[in-house]
Amino acid sequence: MEKPSTIRLHFVLLVIVSALTLVDCLPAQALTTIYNFTAQSTCCGFPTNNDGSRPVGVIALGNTLYGTAQSGGISGIGTVFKVNVDGTGFTVLHYFTNSANPLAGLISSGNTLFGTTECCYGSVFAINTDGMAFRTLHFFPFLDSGMSPRAPLVMSGITLYGTSFGATPSFGYQPDPGSVFEINKDGTGFRYLYVFSIFNSGGAYPQAGLISSGDTFYG
Question: Per residue in 138-184, pLDDT tens?
Fold first, then answer.
């Protein structure tokens, strides 16, 4: 009898082969652009426009897509937007003016969207799907291990979980190479679950998000 790990490996390989065979049989698919972001001008050194630029991901809620743009917008430091799946109804829900430059997409709970920004030390934010009630749930302080989250959040119950990249050595300071953190959806209960260190074998500077299995996170 084969070891269980070998059986699982065979299963994965069979799925991959079947999927590739299926792709070979499908007719060519057309790519449809449903929205083009507008051209930018430069203001105070930042590329600005009315809608954003460099979108980093979308999620679908019904017939509407919600996403973030890393830059652009009236301040040149990013937007939260929505657009219908047929390309109509593009709307900027929020122009970033304080915390800036979201590098990851959004997650949702009911009519609330949650995300992170990377610049100005970083933040966790929430906004309603109608664009109302934008609020910053947490600001990361300068040279803190939680600086600069760059990945989407994950949610379990009332709690959001994420990773932060941290801060590389500069200006004579020691590096703060990232963390895994949690915060409640109402902004309470922030704490670090793990702080990385360059002085051990646990790795450092996480840039990707987490996945969960039961009560365990992997990253």
Answer: 998 776 666 789 899 999 999 999 999 886 555 445 567 888 999 99
Q: Measure Cα distances from 142 to 15, 122, 139, 150 in Å.
A: 47, 9, 9, 16
**Rounded average pLDDT over 46-67:** 93
| DSSP assignments along 137-204, one per residue | EEEPPTT-TT----S--EEETTEEEEEE--B---TTPPPB--EEEEEETTS---EEEEE--TTSSS--
Residue 16 confidence (pLDDT) above 50:
no
Contact (CB, 8 A) for 137 and 159: no
Secondary structure class of 41 (helix, strand, coil): strand
User: Using an 8 Å Cβ cutoff, are 66 and 98 in contact?
Assistant: no
